[in-house]
Design goal:
The complex is a heterodimer of chains A (345) and B (321). Chain A is of the alpha/beta class and 345 residues long. Chain A has 13 helices and 11 strands. Classes of the chains: A alpha/beta (345), B mainly alpha (321).
Amino acid sequence: MGTDERRLLDVRGLTVRFPTTDGVVQAVSNVSYSLSRGETLGVVGESGSGKSVSNLAIMGLLNRNRTEISGEVDFLGRDLLTLPPSELQKIRGKDIAMVFQDPFACLHPMYRVGDQIIEAVLAHSHVSKSAARARAVELLDHVGIPNAKSRARDFPHQFSGGMRQRAMIAMALVHNPAILICDEPTTALDVTVQAQIIELIEEVKREFDIGVILVTHDLGVIAETANSVMVMYAGRIMEYGPADQIFGQPQHPYTWGLLDSMPTIERRLAALVPIEGSPPSLLNPPSGCPFHPRCPYAFAPCPVDPPPPLKNPVADSHLDACHLPWEKKLDLGGKRSIARLGDAA
Amino acid sequence: MAFYIARRLFWTLIVVAAVIGITFVVFYVLPAGDPALRFAGKNPTPVELELIRHRLGLDQAWYIQFLKFIKTFFTGDQYGWPGLGYTFSGQTSVLQLIIARAPRTLLLIAGSSVIWLVSGVSIGIISAVKRRSVTDRAAMGFALFGISAPVFWLGLMGLYIFWRQLGWSAGTGYVSPTDSVSGFLSHMWLPWVTLAMLYAAFYARMTRNNLLETLGEDYIRTARAKGLSERRVIFKHALRASLTPIVTMFGLDIALLVGGAVITESVFNLQGLGYLAINGALTQDLPTVLGVVLLAAVAVALMNLLVDIVYAFLDPRVRYA
């Protein structure tokens, strides 16, 4: 959501299917969104909601032989889904970089941290090894690794989790990418470190004026940092809009469920309302709206009709895919209004 | 590290001593006959038998013999150190016997291990990279064949085809490379390949499985996300991690063959260490058996240590103290 010349990414109708011996898993269904410079797009959803897969599809990191991907991913005028693998390889790590969930598993255990970053530098630029090393040390220092020069010679197991994630971020930044995709960057970290990493990502975004896609299931993190929010369930977008509107006037029962089940400082444990049940199998998803078996507000059309296209009768910025009548959404959503969780928490 | 190695060497001694002790016990608890009877000629008198037993040291308790063996080992005999004593039959030096036979077995292992390591690992890599392709299926079919086919059958089939029918092999027997390099090679290539088949099949499977497992690791996804070429992802990132366990297996397999290439040696009539051990066991020649067992045990124990040390260099997470 931004003006056109700052627009980086336009995803239209992205669908990802995995054919398996048991049938076809529809991991992502007809997902559309956009990202501009300076924007943090928060993507929320439970495990298996398709949030990671959609990013891997953009990066071309899914095995093309075993996935069916359709739709359009327009990155600065080029459709990433139709680019040949060799062209995509030139974009990966250079224009679009990614930070993953588990920093314990994401660095190669047998190579020195610095060498792994040097390798990232040399992947896209023909500089000398020493220049690449200087760049690696500079970035490690930049992301807050103390004694970056000597720590660059350490192996990953000599780093703490937070330091590893910082190193991953440093590695992602070597070529000043336009887009930084962070896939659950804090899930595997200690709470105190989580805040530091989120802060670092925000700093990086402001400093380099890049677009950030922040995938997480932590609504608190989203509330603190995201400009726009996309709520996903069973591979579909349930609700999509500016962050203040998502938190100020949530429109979809699934978003309500997420908000009701989120602990905050004021909310006691007893007041938490979990979403009953578990996410559906994507191999055999429920008929109609995939959320209807767990939705307390489900009514006649929900088990039958697929969710309506993303819509909003009043504004075109804050969209949802729910059968409920608009007045009811306004009423029920208004009760969940949280001015901004970041302020409350 | 030095302390670690010293400690391991100490334990190596204990293990080898235990293996020798067990060999003694097996020899005396499960006698296949009286060794003295074998060397006494026809219709020996009890006095003659007693004399022979005394000369061979068989009239002493097994633990006395054991301690004597240990003592000779450290002090040496007239053929030098380590002292391994003399065979029952013929009273020749076991050490000399082993020195004469060992090159045959060691050269068999050396040639064969190069073949199986190179072919097994290459086949495994191709199989993993071209997973589910015709090449992969063919390679894994070959692996199944290599694992299932008994070595003696493979050896005999090889001899029939490549010696009798095609004349590409010089057949059974051993020619020392110091006598004739071409004679050595023309005799050895078939046993090398035969022995390598089983291991190549195992290594191909293991490389394929390890590589496929590694390719699913998160750090491989990171490497791809950096924009590295697929070649670099596989050869620099995935292979490094997936070949480390193969190094371990390679060391141990080589060590185990020192006393264990019996079937290949027999089929090709190479008369190496395995032949020595089998012959010794069949004729109840305890000193010969002990010599080979000792060598095999030392080989396994030392190779184990070597593998562990190498592992620490290959995997920075492994540190010994």
